What we know:
CATH 1.10.630.10, four-stranded mixed sheet, 11 strands
Amino acid sequence: MSLPGVFLFSHYVESFWSTPPPLVDWSGVPTLVLVLVAVVMAATALLARSPDTKRPTRLPGPPALPLLGTRWLFWSRYKMNKLHEAYEDMFRRYGPVFAETMPGGATVVSIAERAALEAVLRTPARRPYRPPTEIVQVYRRSRPDRYASTGLVNEQGEKWFHLRRHLTSELTSPHTMQGFLPELNSICDDFLNLLQSCRRPDGTVYGFEQLTNRMGLESVCGLMLGTRLGFLERWMSGRVAALASAVKAHFRAQRDSYYGAPIWKFAPTSLYKTFVRSEETIHTIISELMDEAMSRTAGAAQDDGMREIFLNILANPELDMRDKKAAVIDFITAGIETLANSLVFLLYLLSGRPDWQQKIRSELPSCGELRVEELAAASSIRAATNEAFRLLPTAPFLARLLEAPMTIAGHRLPTGTFVLAHTGAACRREENFWRAHEYLPERWTHVREPHAAALVAPFGRGRRMCPGKRFVELELHLILAKIMRQWRVEFDGELDIQFDFLLSPKSPVSLRLVEW
Ligand code: HEM
């Protein structure tokens, strides 16, 4: 209650009991006054409340059921592995800004409108709050023997800032990437050899996505652990296969824990057990790989560009050993599928543009190691990858909690509102891009309006942006260049895409690599 409210109320009560009985019957008046005072007090209290606690003004959105909120939609009308289509449908039904209700009653606001997205993503937060994945948080907090925190991806505030500062500076530095380029060239060559050995006589490669996954594993582990691990050898070891399938299960369990019934929060359901198994498999295998990498590093020269990141993380006295291990795990799990899916999407989209493939080839030297300057000079490569990220990003939306109240599309959203910024959906809207649904790399070399380039955010925005961006761009450009020098890519029909917490190609994917 506000101070004037308390004062008024106590003054009234005191005078009511101390005054003698009136000559006239005023008996109805005290009640009336009491009601009026109560109204004034309630209004004063409401106005005095901090704006942070106000709920968003009523936004359009699907109808919410008691206890279940709007989650029932994902168990009836929509399929969980087609969530991207579910959101497209909801944007059609409710417009570019709508609200869902979580089972606990909290509101999640989805945005695909340009001005609103730009406002949310431009906010210059020092410690941006990205809602953590609860199942990871719950599990890691239950294992203090293994985890000192919930890790860089899920941590918040000062703890996140500390991890980010000590874990990512090497990864984001152009110098580190320059040093890693010779090794990356050799990893890409091994990937091409693997593709060659898996090609049928007509050029078809079955299960292409599994090979890109192995490429993701080899390059991200190489980058993080500073050593080659043999994921690109023709016959994959059991350990490699186990790690790859644990990473897939890990993402799927996160998706199901978020969009499915939240029973795992109250009992160890099979979903929770699957998640724990995948986390433990990943932890065990990566711990072994780290130990092997450490013993190899101990006997080797220390000036190799490839070992820089790993050694610096290991040597950092500011970090708990458990955080170092969790960081390597998080980097590897965050990097493998994202990279592999992006490569499949890129080649699939390019298969519809043989002319652009020819253009890429014409901009490259015909043989030899590729240097950064040669890649930078091939503008068609950058255009092809930018356009693939615009049309088919593996991370189609970004999650944030608003750090200040914001008015979006005429609706006031209070601090703390959970927002899903659907950059992927916004990039496919005609008001934001010319012929928005088509794969047109030329839009990046000769701009045609509308062209809302700022909406293309495959690696996120602001201080929580993906620290792997520089590495991924270098790697995708390099692989694409090497593939285009050797083959043209063909694909029959349409790629089936599903939502595994990331957009992923439905396996198995077959495409043809045909000699020029
Ligand atoms: C095509 C590949 C990749 C894509 C599309 C991608 C995309 C993303 C996105 C969208 C985010 C969230 C950013 C935000 O909230 O603003 C993110 C975060 C992150 N990514 Fe990536 N990523 C990729 C590869 C990688 C690689 C290779 C690594 C590690 C070597 C990595 C490590 C991380 C980490 C640690 C975070 C959490 C950062 C933080 O919260 O501070 N990612 N990534």
